[in-house]
Amino acid sequence: MTPEEDKIWKSIQARDKQAFEQYYKDHYRLFYIAAIKYLADPGLAQEVVNDVFVTLWQNADKVVIQSSLKAYLHRSVINRSLNLLDKNKRDRQQLEISRQAEGIAEPKEMETNELKLLLYQAIDSLPEQCRKVFRMSRFEGLKQQEIADRLGISIKTVKNHVTNALQQLKRVLDGWHNLPLLMALINYFFWHRH
Questions:
Q1: Among 80, 103, 133, 144, which has the highest number of CB atoms less than 10 A from its own CB?
Q2: Higher pLDDT pick, 107 / 139
């Protein structure tokens, strides 16, 4: 556990409601992404994350965390998600989960989710028109001319918006050290051109 995380965990164990609520706000989306991957249901994913945090708050004095608070909560969210799945689905995913329990896949999955979260936050923070153009280009797969026609703007403006968005995403990716994941995301966002 990092010193910062250790300090937060000790605050939560000491019943510091403000520290607990801040940690929840800062990490909710990360754990929500983990839950939605298994459940494919936004309502259930939200319920799972909330349940995990409530349980943590209620049992903070009894919980022993070996690795990190984030890893502990991530594992709890996945376990609770699996418990909500029907028997057949659970059986199909059990092999994947047992591998993650070994601690091999889990850090990679958490890292992937964290980077995706950073990228989506960066996209969400773009100016409205720039964000709209970028989403139409990268998520809807529209060609630049189609975007220009739909929005009533020039192709040059479309290109400028996409360039500005990519520069913003590059700033988010600076300093990220997971090379295979980074290459996959760069391939998707930066070379996915129309």
A1: 133
A2: 139
| pLDDT number for residue 70 | 87
Q: Per residue in 124-165, pLDDT tens?
A: 888 899 989 988 887 777 888 999 999 999 999 999 998 888
Tokens of 96: 């994947």
48 in any annotated domain: yes
Tokens of 189: 């966002």
H/E run at residue 138? helix 128-138
Residue 116 lies in a domain: no
Domain-located, residue 120 = no
Answer yes or no: do 76 and 32 share one domain.
yes
Structure tokens at 167: 């520069």
Residue 146's identity, in one-letter code, is: E
Could you tell me the pLDDT band of residue 194, with boundaries at 50, 70 and 90? Answer: very low
Q: Supply the DSSP string of 59-97, one letter for each residue.
A: TTTT---SS-HHHHHHHHHHHHHHHHS-HHHHHHHHHHH
Task: Count other C-beta atoms under 10 Å from residue 92's C-beta.
Answer: 10
- Residue 122: Cβ-neighbour burial (10 angstroms; 0-12, 13-18, 19+): middle
